[in-house]
Amino acid sequence: MIFDTDIFIWVQRGNQKASRLMEKAEYKYLSIQTYMELLQCSKNKTQHKYVKDFISSFNFMVLPLTENIGHRALIYIEEYTLSSGLRAGDAIIAATAIENNMTLVSSNAKHFRIIKDLKLKVFKP
């Protein structure tokens, strides 16, 4: 299972349902895009360290941006940005899930429902 950025934010806010969801997952993945978004939202070095320690201590595997993921994300941007407002970060996260044949967990269903090939598990906090 690959987790969208918003699930990490729910955990940081103390949402027990999000925490249990992560704990129950046998294998935990996130895209490099999600990792960058989490670091980018940090306000100081302490929060940077917290993010890095969280990812490491809970055995998350960071999936890299590959040529295939980049190409697929570009296709999604061409296909969906004008009609649905798909953003580059979400396109990369969705492409990462699809290229790795994984289910994406997100509470932002409206960002991802338009992508036909994506296996999406909608999280409701």
Q: What's the topology here?
A:
Layout (H helix, E strand, L loop, with lengths): L1 E2 L1 H8 L3 H9 L3 E4 H10 L3 H13 L2 E4 L3 H18 L3 H12 L3 E4 L2 H4 L6 E4 L3
Parallel strand pairs: 1-4, 2-3, 4-5
Helix pairs in contact: 1-2, 3-4, 5-6
Explain the overall architecture.
- With 125 residues, this protein is of the alpha/beta class.
- It has a single domain, classed as Rossmann fold.
- 59% of the residues lie in helices and 14% in strands.
- The strands form 2 sheets. The chain has a 3-stranded parallel β-sheet. The chain has a two-stranded parallel ribbon with strand order 2-3.
- α1 crosses α2 and α5 packs across α6.
- The longest helix has 18 residues.
- 30% of the residues are buried.
How many helices does DSSP assign?
Answer: 7
Tell me the span between the first and last alpha carbons. Answer: 18 Å
Strand order of the largest sheet: 1-4-5
Spans with pLDDT under 50 lasting ≥5 residues?
none
Kindly report the CATH topology: Rossmann fold
The proportion of strand residues reads 5-15%
Based on secondary structure, the structural category is: alpha/beta
Architecture, according to CATH? Answer: 3-Layer(aba) Sandwich
Oligomer: single chain
Produce a short descriptive summary.
The protein has one domain: 5'-nuclease (Rossmann fold). The chain contains seven helices and five strands, in the order βααβααβααβαβ. It has helices spanning 5-12, 16-24, 32-41, 45-57, 67-84, 88-99, 109-112, and strands spanning 2-3, 28-31, 60-63, 103-106, 119-122.
